[in-house]
Design brief:
The chain is of the alpha/beta class and about 325 residues long. Helices cover about 35% and strands about 20% of the residues. The protein is built from 12 helices and 12 strands. The protein has a 6-stranded parallel β-sheet with strand order 3-2-1-4-5-6, with helices on both faces. It has a 6-stranded mixed β-sheet with strand order 7-8-9-10-12-11. β9 and β10 form a beta hairpin. α2 runs parallel beside α5 and α5 runs antiparallel to α6. It is globular.
C-alpha cells in the first residue's frame, strides 16, 4: 500500500468508527476468514464492526470465531441496509467489483462512505477510497495480516484473529500447494502457530467433517468425470436433480473441482453445477502450470479469478454449456 494511504487509514481508525465488512457472494474460507479476522481486530480496537455477508456461508465455516455475529443480507435486507448506510467505513474483502455481492450491489453503489478494498483478484474496479490490491499474494487473509502490520499493530494479532487468517490462507492456497504460496506465506503461518493457532485441528474442521450425503454427491461427481487426455483436460457436472437427490446444502460441492487435477497428465479441469433458481450453470476452473484459467473464464464464461483458479457462469442449458466447453477444449494446446 502507499504510505500516504496507510497514514490516512491510521488517522481514520484512531477514533471509534461504525464499520461494515463485506465478503463476496457465496463466501469461501478466504472470504469468511479475512472478514472475521478483520472484524476481531477492529472490535479489539473499540470500533463498532459488523460483517455482512450477501448470502449464507457454508456450514463447514460455522465454527469460525465470530461467525454467529455475521449478518446475512438476503435474510434481513432492511437491517443490513441500515447498517451499511450508517457506516463510516466499508471494507470490501476478497472481491473487487460490486457485482460480486449480488443484490447488495444496488446498496453499495449509492453509499456515500469511505471504501477500503483488500483483495488479490485481477482488474479491480475503481470504487475504493483506499485500495490494497495485489494479485501476487495467494489469499486475502495473508493480505489482512499484512494490512494489520502496515498499521503497526501486528502485536494485536492473537489466537482468535490468527485462526481466521490461517483458515483463509489454508483454503486459498490449496493446503499450501498453489503457486502463490511463498516463503512469506509460510513465515506468517509459523507466526500464527506460535500464537496458538491449532494448525492440526483446523484442516479437520474444514475438510474432514463431511456428511454422508456430501460424500455420496462427491461420488456422483466422480462418476460424471470425463477426460480429454490429448488436451490434458477433464471436467465433471452436477445437475440440479443430482444435487437434490443427495440433499445438497451450501458448501457440499466445495473442493470437488480439484479432483480433476489429480489425474495423471491433466493440467486443466472444470466443474459445471446447475442452479435452476438462478437459471445459471455455475462453473469453477482449476489449472496447474502455465494455463491461465482467469483469462479463459473472462473470455468465454463471464467470469474471472486467478491464473490457476477461477469461476464463471453460463446462462444456457447444461447440455449447451458442455458442448461449448468441449469445442473450446478441442482447440486448446496445453
Amino acid at each position: 500500500m502507499k504510505i500516504q494511504d496507510i497514514q490516512a487509514i491510521q488517522s481514520l481508525l484512531a477514533t471509534p468508527k461504525k464499520i461494515a465488512i463485506i465478503p463476496h457472494r457465496n463466501p469461501d474460507g478466504d472470504a469468511m476468514g479475512s472478514t472475521l479476522g478483520l472484524y476481531h481486530f477492529l472490535t479489539k480496537n473499540n470500533h463498532e464492526a459488523t460483517v455482512i455477508s450477501p448470502n449464507e456461508f457454508p456450514d463447514f465455516l460455522a465454527w469460525l470465531p465470530g461467525s454467529e455475529t455475521v449478518q446475512i443480507f438476503e435474510k434481513d435486507k432492511e437491517n443490513c441496509t441500515a447498517i451499511l448506510e450508517e457506516a463510516d467505513i466499508v471494507f470490501t474483502l476478497d472481491f473487487n467489483a460490486f457485482h460480486r455481492v449480488g443484490e447488495m450491489e444496488k446498496v453499495l453503489e449509492v453509499l456515500q462512505t469511505t471504501y477500503i478494498m483488500i483483495d488479490h483478484h485481477q482488474k479491480p474496479d475503481d470504487y475504493a477510497t483506499y485500495m490494497y490490491s495485489n494479485t501476487s499474494i495467494g489469499s486475502t487473509c495473508e493480505m489482512v495480516y499484512n494490512f494489520i502490520s502496515f498499521l503497526d499493530q501486528k502485536n494485536q494479532i492473537d489466537k482468535t484473529i490468527g485462526t481466521c487468517i490461517y483458515t483463509g490462507i489454508l483454503t486459498d492456497s490449496g493446503s499450501f500447494k498453489f503457486p502463490n504460496t511463498t516463503g512469506n506465506t509460510h513465515r506468517i503461518v509459523a507466526e500464527l502457530i506460535d500464537l496458538g493457532v491449532e494448525n492440526t485441528k483446523i484442516p479437520n474442521l474444514l475438510f474432514d467433517n463431511s456428511s454422508y450425503n456430501r460424500l455420496q454427491l462427491l461420488g456422483r461427481a466422480l462418476q460424471n468425470l470425463k477426460t480429454f487426455p490429448e488436451n490434458k483436460t477433464s471436467y465433471t457436472t452436477l445437475t440440479q436433480e443430482e444435487l437434490n437427490s443427495f440433499n445438497y446444502v451450501k458448501g457440499d460441492t466445495e473442493g470437488i473441482v480439484n479432483y480433476g487435477l489429480s489425474i495423471k497428465g491433466i493440467q486443466f479441469t472444470a466443474i459445471f453445477i446447475e442452479n435452476k433458481d438462478e437459471k445459471i450453470i455455475k462453473i469453477s476452473f482449476r489449472s496447474q502450470g502455465d494455463f491461465d484459467v482467469n483469462e479463459f473464464a473472462r473470455e468465454h464464461f463471464n467470469g474471472g479469478g486467478h491464473r490457476n483458479a477461477a469461476g464463471g457462469k453460463s446462462e444456457v442449458s447444461m447440455e449447451e454449456t458442455i458442448v461449448k466447453f468441449e469445442n473450446l477444449v478441442k482447440n486448446l494446446t496445453l
